[in-house]
Amino acid sequence: MIIGSKLYRIKECSNSMVWAKEHSIDAPDGSVFIADKILHTCGRQGRIWQQYPGQLLVTILLKPKLLHEVGFDDVPVRLNQLNMALSVGIAQALELYNVGIKWPNDFVVSDKKVGGLLAHVVWQNNFPACIIIGFALNINTQFAVTDQLYLTATSLSMAIGKDLDMRAIYHDLLAKLDSYYSLWEQKQFVQIYRSWKAFQIYLGKKIAIHQKDSIVVSGVMSQVLPNGDMLLLVDGKIQIIPFCIVSDVRVG
Question: Which residues in the chain come in under a pLDDT of 50?
Answer without folding.
Answer: none
